[in-house]
Amino acid sequence: MTPTLTLSRLTKRFGGMEALKAVSLSLEPGKRAALLGHNGAGKSTLMKIVLGLIPFDGGEVSVCGAAPGSPSARAQVAYLPENVAFHPALTGEEQLRHYLALRGESPRQAMELLGRVGLAHAAQRRIGTYSKGMRQRVGLAQTLIGRPRLLVLDEPTSGLDPVSRRDFYDLLDGLAAEGTAILLSSHVLTEVEARTDSILILSGGQLVAEGTLAALRARAALPVAFSVFPAPGHEASLAAAFPEAAADADGHLRLSCTQAEKLPLIARIAALGDHVADLDVVPPSLEDIYSHFSRRDGQ
Amino acid sequence: MSRILATAISEFRIAFRNRWVSIATGMMVLFALVLAAAGSAPTGDVGVDRLSVTVASLTSLAVYLVPLLALLMSFDAVAGEVERGTLPLLLTYPVSRLQILLGKLLAHLAILALAVTLGYGAAALVAVWSDPGAVQGLGSLWRLIWTSVLLGATFLGAGYALSALARRPSGAAGLAIALWLVAVVLYDLALLALIVTDGGGAFTTRALPVALLANPADAFRVFNLSAAEAVAAAGGIGGAAGAIPLWQSAASLFLWPLAAIGLAVAAFRKVTL
Fold first, then answer.
1. Domains of chain A: which residue ranges?
2. Contacts of residue B9 in chain A, CB cutoff 8 Å?
3. N-terminal to C-terminal alpha carbon distance within chain B
4. CATH code reported for the domain at A5-218
5. How far apart are CA A45 and CA A53, in angstroms?
6. Each residue's pLDDT expressed in tens, for chain A with a length of 299 residues
7. Which residues share a beta bridge with A66?
8. What is residue B58's three-state secondary structure?
9. How far off is chain B from A173, nearest CA to CA, in Å?
10. What single DSSP character describes residue B215?
11. Is the dihedral of CA B180, B184, B187, B189 positive or negative?
12. CATH 2.30.30 correct for A223-283
């Protein structure tokens, strides 16, 4: 399948500072990729280059087979900027009718689009009276216009409550199922974990890691953490059985091991029978993996 | 074309809600009526109809008011989008910067056309009401309306260009006021000073016509006054109007909007995000 988006050795400089250093990636139709990185890691710069909003200094970028920012690319790409803004004097419906007309679609779809993001009730109100979350939904609604082949979403769920976030990712799943490639950045790693196909970690302008969460987890080889809860009266015997463990204030034993040692350790704990009241196994979180990769090649 | 129209519709809505339509119309009607009332005394001795005299006074009013309204409506066009943060999203749409500016221009021109038509129309009604023979002057009234729209287009384009250059609404507003002062007030004062010191020499005969044509506001005044042959009623710099062929001031009136909009598009293309 031809990728919807291809970057090869993309380089961007601002003055003497290299904002992006030879970044290469490709995104296939129907795939959802999350772009992670600290503030200033180059996420927004990368997105603006893909959208054709700013020029780049080296490498190649192909968006739906065209140059970024070309009329053909712009017709097939939808964008949701971070902290999306609209003219406060227009109503939600008027703003969407405008965007529909700019994409050559019938303005009559405005109400249906607002309905899809749960804003039908506020369609006749001026956007100046909207909350941040409602503006974000208008921004989301305008990305659904037409059938974009590539969605570029900069911090799309900021300002949304948890229920809206879930609805939002449901919408993305539907689009991806129809073949839209999605590139999004987020600070909320837990939701990215569950709802994207691959993860791209940018650090200091370099792509330091790329892959599925499972692959990144294996590559990082971070320790698995255990919390063992002793049964009443067995605290001392349990502590003796695991001299390497550290006890916390509640009397729980904290252990950690490599991925390969995980099953033998579980077997050891299980062998203690009713001395153990409960057991929590905590795999390395995306936060841990993210810190691992972005720190290793540090800024 | 549909993209230009869609932009124009949104811009018209925004201008309407921001009271620009009522402010522009109210200003034009108010000033035109004041002029019509004040100019009612000296009609008899000029020997032309009442409306033609009103149009001559309205021309002097329009030279100041139309550029001012145009600049007030346009200074925010690009800088405002930059400040609100609406520009990046707009520029990812399949719409060119030329189309965006033309859409804004269409909306703002419609508002200006409405304002001058109602304003001049009110003054004309007063003139015709007190002197039924004034209907002879309807031709010059129509000429004043369409030349005002062209003059407005020039200053709208200039306003967009300043807006794109400044990138901040406060800076753009300052530049717009400066342009208005220079083009409409100081330019004529400088010309008057030169005429006085020159005393009918080479400057007055050779350079003055060129200088008048080079300024869209003066070209507008010269065209309307010489076309109406009401030079005597206006006097002042207008007195020089007779020396300039009509086609030259007309050409200046038509070329300036194109130049201003070309400048605006060039400046807008330089705006990066």
1. 5-218, 223-283
2. 98
3. 26
4. 3.40.50.300
5. 9
6. 788 998 889 999 988 888 888 989 999 999 999 998 888 888 889 999 999 999 999 989 999 989 998 999 999 999 999 889 999 999 999 999 999 999 999 999 999 999 988 899 999 999 999 998 899 999 999 999 988 999 999 988 877 888 888 888 888 898 999 999 999 988 777 777 778 888 898 888 888 888 888 888 888 888 888 888 888 888 888 888 888 888 887 778 888 888 888 888 888 888 888 888 888 888 888 788 888 887 754 44
7. A63
8. helix
9. 23
10. S
11. negative
12. no
The C-alpha of A187 sits at a distance from chain B's nearest C-alpha, in angstroms, of 21
* Nearest Cβ partner for B89 among A71, A81, A101: A81
Q: What is the ipTM of this complex?
A: 0.86
Query: A126, exposed or middle or buried, with CB in 10 Å at 0-12, 13-18, 19+?
Result: middle
Residue of A74, A80, A84, A98 to mutate, interface with B, max B Cβ within 10 Å: A98
Strand pairing category for A181-185 and A32-36: parallel
Please report, for chain B, the start and end positions of each structural domain, with discontinuous segments joined by +.
2-269
* Residues whose CB is less than 8 angstroms from the CB of residue A235 and which lie 6 or more positions away in sequence, other chains included: A251
Beta-bridge partner residues of B36: none
The two three-digit tokens of residue B208, written as one number: 């003055």
With CA atoms as reference, report the closest residue to B153 among B268, B222, B254. B254
* DSSP string across B161-189: HHHHHH-SHHHHHHHHHHHHIIIIIIHHH
B91: contact with A, CB 8 A cutoff? yes
Question: Do the Cβ atoms of B3 and A102 come within 8 Å?
Answer: yes
Contacts of B5 in chain A (CB under 8 A): 101
Nearest to A53 among B18, B86, B92 (CB): B92
Question: Residues in chain A, how many?
Answer: 299
Q: In what order do the strands lie in the sheet with A5-14?
A: A17-27, A5-14, A58-63
3 state SS for chain A = CCCCEEEEEEEEEECCEEEEEEEEEEECCCCEEEEECCCCCCHHHHHHHHHCCCCCCEEEEEECCECCCCHHHHHHEEEECCCCCCCCCCEHHHHHHHHHHHCCCCHHHHHHHHHHCCCHHHCCCEHHHCCHHHHHHHHHHHHCCCCCCEEEEECCCCCCCHHHHHHHHHHHHHHHHCCCEEEEECCCHHHHHHHCCEEEEEECCEEEEEECHHHHHHHHCCCEEEEEEECCCCHHHHHHHCCCCEECCCCCEEEEECCCCHHHHHHHHHHCHHHEEEEEEECCCHHHHHHHHHHHCCC
Q: Which residues, in sequence order, are bridge partners of residue A201?
A: A36, A209
Half-sphere exposure for A36 (CA within 13 Å, toward CB): 29
From chain A, pick out residues whose CB is under 8 angstroms from the CB of B89: 79-81, 84-85, 139, 142
Q: Is residue B15 within 8 Å of residue B73, measured between CB atoms?
A: yes
Contacts of A142 in chain B (CB under 8 A): 89
Least CB–CB distance from A102: residue in B17, B85, B93: B93
Give the closest residue to A157 by CA, choosing from A177, A182, A136: A136
